[in-house]
Amino acid sequence: MARKYQIPGVIITNVDKNSRLKDALKRGDLIYQINDTSIYSLEILKLVDENIRSQYRARLYFERDGVRDTIELFFNRNNQRR
């Protein structure tokens, strides 16, 4: 699956059916950036995920089938994605 992408990132292998992101992200999408931080490993993604919750919103950059797109993530006071 990773061979089809020309940039480094983290490939989504599963999107929980109860996730609020289930309509925006799909299995096989490549997350390559969150805000100004390039995501080139799962470890970086985990660190960024922990830090963005305090900001209440973030922009996630991803690629699907050769097309790059973005979505904005919002967090409520309980740090849950909306």
Oligomer: single chain
Largest sheet: 5 strands, antiparallel
Question: What is the CA-CA span between the terminal residues?
Answer: 29 Å
* Fraction of residues in β-strands: 25-35%
The count of helical stretches stands at 1
Low-confidence stretches: none
Approximate helicity band: 10-25%
Average pLDDT, all residues? 82
Counted beta strands: 5
Radius of gyration: 12 Å
**SS-based structural class?**
alpha+beta
The 3D shape can be described as globular
Q: What's the SSE pattern?
A: EEEHEE
Could you give a quick summary of the protein structure above?
This protein has 82 residues and is of the alpha+beta class. Helix content is 13%, strand content 30%.
Q: What is the secondary structure topology, with strand pairs?
A:
Blueprint: E1 10-11, E2 30-34, E3 37-38, H1 42-52, E4 57-64, E5 67-74
Antiparallel strand pairs: 1-2, 2-3, 2-4, 4-5
